[in-house]
Amino acid sequence: MRGFSGKQAFLLGLLLHTVIMPNSAAPEGGFCSVSPSYSSPSSDALYWKVTNPTLSPSNLKDLPGFTRSKYKRDHALISPESQVFSPLSNWVNALGAYLVSPAMGSHFTMYLAKMQEGSRSALPAKDIERFVFVVQGSCLLSVALGITHQLDVDFYAYIPPNSDHLLKCDVATLVILERRYARLEGYVLPELIIGSTDEQPLLETPGEVFELRKLLPTSPSYDFNIHIMDFQPGEYLNIKEVHYNQHGLLLLEGQGIYRLGDNWYPVQAGDAIWMAPFVPQWYAALGKNRSRYLLYKDVNRDPLISLS
């Protein structure tokens, strides 16, 4: 495996055999892989597995109550079989599944919005900023002065607090992050950002092997950023991170293993993770294909400032 020593590869293999797949041979596609419940002509589309996830490892298909989801004091894993969709308040023809919310202890929300025919968004509450990322379908984003932007898969929009806007979609799935903006004295308010992942340059990651793109400016006007991180099979984080920042993560492609605290979780496309401040965290990419995840991170603010 690229990035692993022989001993590390052996230990990970032993862990996967003993902990993740007891008394069962590994599926052909890797420890998270099973055949989808149905075939689809769009199965090669970008981020297809986020909206058409594998619901349960094949060796556990006869355990109807099984879920990989976990909720603990300092982290949570929400896997697709646990996501519960319900109408989004004041939205039209849109269903939402909250993956991260302040009920966990976070200072932000992250949710999936399934937009249906004729769907329309609602405005967030006062002083709430919004980030939208398209994982399936397309949407029209209308902003001030009647300007409209088309957002296709892998496109995103950052919408500053108290900005009039409207999302109109027929069939689409969006990842939406919202938080109360932490104003910083002496700096102008952030601006509307429209972009796509491929437009963003790869950034240097000293001491690490993963590829990194940042979707928002790094200037102090912005109190969070969104990272897109790519790992080839066998690559892993060198730093075992422990820090004051919170994270919200959605795995867009691939599969691997995530350490959160003293727990080791098999993860795959469609899984969402919340990481509280100072929880030990580490990721290794496994399987046959690239891993890509979207990562929320609060930045540019003194931790003594309340983020509630």
TrEMBL record:
**Which NCBIfam families does the UniProt entry name for this protein?**
ura-cupin
Keyword Signal attributed: yes
Species of origin: Vanilla planifolia (Vanilla)
GO MF terms held by the record:
ureidoglycine aminohydrolase activity
Q: Which UniProt keywords apply?
A: Signal
| Domain of life (superkingdom) | Eukaryota
Q: Where is the signal peptide?
A: 1-25
Q: Does the keyword Mitochondrion apply?
A: no
Lineage from the top down? Answer: Eukaryota, Viridiplantae, Streptophyta, Embryophyta, Tracheophyta
Pfam families for this protein: Cupin_2
Domain Cupin type-2: from-to ranges: 228-294
Q: What is the protein's name according to its record?
A: Cupin type-2 domain-containing protein
